[in-house]
Predict the structure.
Amino acid sequence: MGVDEKNEPAGVIDLDPTRPHPARRYNYWLGGKDNFQADRDAGDAIAGVFPHIRTAARENRAFMQRAVRHLAGEAGVRQFLDIGTGLPTAENVHDVAQGIARDSRVVYVDNDPLVLSHARALLTSSAEGATAYIDADLRDPERILADPAVRGTLDWSEPIALMLIAILHFVEDHEDPAGIVNRLVGALPPGSYLVLSHATFDPLDPATIAAMNAVNEGIKPRFCPRTYAEVSGFFGDRTLLEPGIVSVSDWRPGPGPRPAPAEATGYGAIARIG
C-alpha cells in the first residue's frame, strides 16, 4: 500500500519566522536550507560556545540511520513511529527502512509548521509500504496514540519501533518526560522497540557547560541536556540491545575514525519492549 490520500496534511500553515524552532535549527546545522534567520542566529549562538555542534547533529542522525537499519534488517521490524521527525532530508526513516524491506510502514510526527508544509516529501512510500504524517506534539501522547493516521497506518498487533531521536531534551522536567515515554511505550505491542537519543553535557568541561547554559537562557524552547543516569531512567528495566547506552557515535559504528563523546555530546540506545 502506498500513500493514503486521507492522511496527507492540509490546511493553513502558520509560520512564525521570528521564533527559532529546534527542527529548523537542526536543519541549519545539517547544512539544510529550510530555516529562518532566527533559527540561524540561535544555531550560531550555540556554535559560538560549542564549535562541535554540527558534528553532534550529524552523529545523531547517523545513529538514527544505523538504528533503523538494524531494526528493519536483523530485527525484522516493519513499523516505525517517529516522533520529532524534523525537516525531510536524505535517508529519512522510511528511506532507510523501505530500502531494506519495501513493506515497511512509517508514521512521522512533528509540531513545526514548516515540517508540515514539507511533509509530502516524507510521504513518498514504496508501493508495498505506507507513510503518514501527523501534526502533533510529543507532550500530548494521548492525541498521538488516538490519531486515525497512527491507528490506521500501523498494525498495533505487530511490533512497532518508537523513535524518539533528539527530542526529549526539549521536554522540561516539570512536563514529565519520563511519564510521556512510559505512556507511549506502554501502548506498544510486545516485541516492539524504543529507540532514543538525548543530548548530554556529561563529557564537557565546566567552562563549556557554563557557556552553553548561558546561551540556553535566551533560547526557547529551553534545552535540557541530561546525565547518563537520567537518560537511563527513560529505559527503566527494559532490555537494552548491545552496547547499551553509549555515545551516539559509539553505537554499533561502522569502520573508520569517529568523533569523541565530547564532540558528539549525546547518548543513544535501543531497548526491546516485552
About this structure: The two ends are 28 Å apart (CA to CA).
